[in-house]
Amino acid sequence: MHAATLLMIVLAAGLSSQWVAWRVGLPAIVILIASGLALGPVSGLIELSLSQQELGELIGLGVAIILFEGGMDLKLGEFKRVGHGIGRLTVLGPPLAWLFGSLAAHYVAGLSWPVACVLGAILVVTGPTVILPLLRQARLNKESASLLKWEGIVNDPIGVLLAVLTFQYFTIGGGFAPTLHGLGIAIAAAALFGGVGGWLTGLVYQRGMVPEHLKAPVLMVLVLVVYWFSNLAQHEAGLLSVTLMGLVVGNMKLVDREALQHFKENLTVVLLSVLFIVIPSQLKLSHLQLIDWRLVLFVIVLLLVVRPLTIGLATLGAPMRAGDKWLLAWIAPRGIVAAATAGIFGPALVASGYPDAEKMLPVVFLVIVVTVLAHGLTLARLSQRLGLAAKSANGLLIVGASPWTCALAQALRKLDIRVLMVDGAYHRLKMARMDGTDVYYGEILSERAEHTLETQHLNHLLCATDNDFYNALVCKAQGRNFGHHRTFQLATHQESTQEPKRLTLQQRGHIAFAGGADFETLHLRQSEGWRIQTTTLRENYDFNQLRQRMGAPGEDWLVIGAVTPAGMFRLYSPEQPFKAETGWRIVYFSAESKPASSDHEMATSTVQAPEASGDQDKARKLDV
Predict the structure, then answer these.
(1) What distance in Å separates the CA atoms of residue 125 and residue 66, rounded to the nearest whole number?
(2) How many helices (H) and strands (E) does the chain have?
(3) Which residue range is the domain that position 500 belongs to?
(4) pLDDT tens digits, residue range 370-400?
């Protein structure tokens, strides 16, 4: 098969597997491995004409970029909240996991000591490429998510380095002195190439010495260069170097840090799709037949004994919540780094005279599949039972405290919709605090808010300050977290009326409520007696009849949103309209609640709000 055709098959299979996993709600790695097995040992469609060494080097390059991207996601500010836990998991955790994993591999799986020790080192890793998507799905609080994220990203290169040193100890020999020497070289290489190299890269970017269109490609090449030179100094020290490089670059004050990170994230998705197709495709049916009852028992012991014992001892006496300890004791999915490392050291150990190392690659894939399924399918429910995650995302984050937004928050809370109000001025939050609305005092775009603002229980964002361009800036910054289709701002009133001169949709959030529902108009209407009210639609009273009763849209009333019979909140926008059906509760803004006809069964309530100050000029017409 031609190389181009093979590449297209791998890319198509990988990305389609990612899409299928998203549709069915399963961890992507499971679908990817299944596709790789189907295309490799089952059908024989994928056959690479590369030696094991060449394939391992190419896989290493992909893993280097993945770990660098993970390193960029680590924020040093998180140490202020969970530094004690991170230290325990990344300093005490790896040697304990290595020790207990090696003992289990020898006494349970029946592997020789050299193979067992290398396998125990490989299984130290906990797979950031798996845990990060799971964290987004589980809606964990930021403290618990930080612990799992730091452990997954930092322990990956540590586990690989342990595997390298263990392999060298049993194959090269010479005792502990060469091993410690190799460890020292690896640390020095990481500090020099990763730490200093990352700082110099950030400095060059800060001073504009690289043009904007070349920054992302140049950074990718620099990551590979650091990985390669570190490996020349000490075998497999490159992964530790690129992780440190990502940590340094990600925490520097780079204006274009997010753009660089988005590029790396997109590249990581492609690389994961390719690697998890290629690596399992190289397995043979004879490898799968090596899995016996002892290897299955080893996987069970790894989940139920090794991991809990490691976390229990590593966090003993640490000032951590009991819920976090229980969560960490169970959640430890393995990913691409474990698979790639096993693919390198398994054949190398066989060639060095350890035939039972043939079991290493199949048992690692068994561990990956079992842990991803077991932990991926239980993370959300377990974290909710431990009080570490929101059960659902259904609520509104309001940026900008004012009499009108306080009235909106009060109305939504009466409908059991969760509301969080954010403002950088403490005095503006006084009214919301007195009403019992949850508030957050601080700048939403600050680093502190990034680390401490909990929004996993909310699914809509409304920017409602009196500054149109600040609203647009916040929507643009937060759109990735909430989804751009659920990011809204009040209509702009400071812009030109000419459409070509106005902010484009790509530079702002969706306009909420109506094209003329700007800050000044809403507060003027409120001062004139308009109130936020709710009406329930019935079979004999639909949304069209409600419109007819309420009068002219914008002049007599304004649709704010709706709550479905299942209790899900929807914010209305002419750019993101919804179809209201029977049982929906419509939230609207109008002067007063007009009485319904006697044959219309309808429930209406009004929320009284404090008087709003505003311009007494006649409000502009609102278009619904």
Answers:
(1) 14
(2) 25, 11
(3) 395-607
(4) 888 888 888 888 988 888 887 778 889 999 9
